[in-house]
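Technical appendix A lists one of the benchmark inputs used to test multi-chain prediction within the project. The record comprises two sequence entries:
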Amino acid sequence: MDIAGALSVDHLKFLAHGFMVTLYIAFISILLSFIIGTLLGTLRYAKIPVVSKIMAVIVETIRNMPLLLIIFFTFFALPEVGLKLSVTVAAISALTVFESAMLAEIVRGGLNSIDKGQIEAARSSGLTYTQTLRYIVMPQALRRMVPPIVSQFISLLKDTSLCVIIALPEFMHNAQIIYAQNVNYIFPIFIVVAFMYFIVNYGLSLVARRLENKQV
Amino acid sequence: MFKSKTSKVGLIVFLAISMLLAACGKGDKATSGSGKNALDQIKKRGKIVIGVKYDTRLFGLKNPKTGEVEGFDIDISKELAKEILGDEKKVEFKEVTSKTRIPMLNNGDIDAIVATMTISEDRKKEVDFSDVYFDAGQSLLVKKGSPIKGLEDLKKGTKVLAVKGSTSAVNIREKAPEATILEYENYTEAFTALKSGQGDALTTDDSILYGMVDQDPNYQLVGGTFTEEPYGIAVKKGNKELVDALNKALKKIKESGKYDEIKNKWIKTN
């Protein structure tokens, strides 16, 4: 074990750079999947003939697949059918596809949690179904969705490390490069990596908890 | 009326998603088009994009201090750029692994692979190779004092560590069919696994194993080399002009003595 060598300023800078990539990829992916997930979840919730069924099939299929498979798929399989993605785009696409399905379920759960009585009341006071969704159900449901979305973001942040497999220069990848310099660095580097993940993710879960408490 | 309206919504969502994906597809590419005379494209661009390893000691290892990649493959690539484009700085490195290098080449992300890649008949079906630029041979790495002295000691129950997607993993299955082969993502992980006692021996090209001995002298190579692993530069299939240019450049580098200089700088065989 070589603690001083492993934790030199240059190495820590290099790690920090990788961590920024992790945050960046996770942030873009969660943003995209929030938009797509909300659409998918709402369409599934709305019980529109055919469309809702299709959404259900899409969401369930993706949700029941390992993320690693989706990452392999976007990077290795899509080029075979002519869709060529760079490492970063392949990573973001895979994470977005997977997280969209996850968020769709969170959105649907949030919508379902709104009392049906409110919908009936809104409908009988003359609002259309779309108006009811938009002005009555959505605003309340969105607020309830915030804590589970934050915890989903935490998983996403951790799952980004799977992209090491396609050599995305993120946190874990940079950690690997450092211990490739010298195997005696491996233990201290892992401790630092664990610590950084913990700090950020624990911070996020504190935020989620506060948001939760506010609502009660 | 209601039904047609909602299916329109569905259609729009699908279109939006597929457009998003399609837009994503137009990322930065090294070679646009189908690789029609890649050499001209490289010259026009004024830069050759080469896929190298970032995690392999002596061949291609990223230095966190400088942010540069360093190693034999890197220096050779720079010389190639100097011969083909007149300036060793006209080269861009992209990280590849044993698994990603061929997809990235065929994708057009990189023009050529200079990444400890053995020329093999199977790979020739997928890519075109230059002349041999380095002669490696597969060997075994064990802890000093290990009972394993060579291939013949890899009996039933011995665990041999190898790297996924490499020729050495394929070879060792033939040469030591009784041994259990464990495959890791990269050489660092395989070596770390050996050090932590996950296996009895590690097999790959001797050149890479020397890099590991360089890190930890408690380990040694045993049994000599039992295969020939000629490294070649891979390019997209059908790029004859590029292969010719690379071969010409390699020949020049070898004749000028630059090749030996680079080789002696990185590879110490004793």
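The two ends of chain B are 82 Å apart (CA to CA). Chain B has a mean pLDDT of 85. Comparable benchmark entries are summarised in Table A2.
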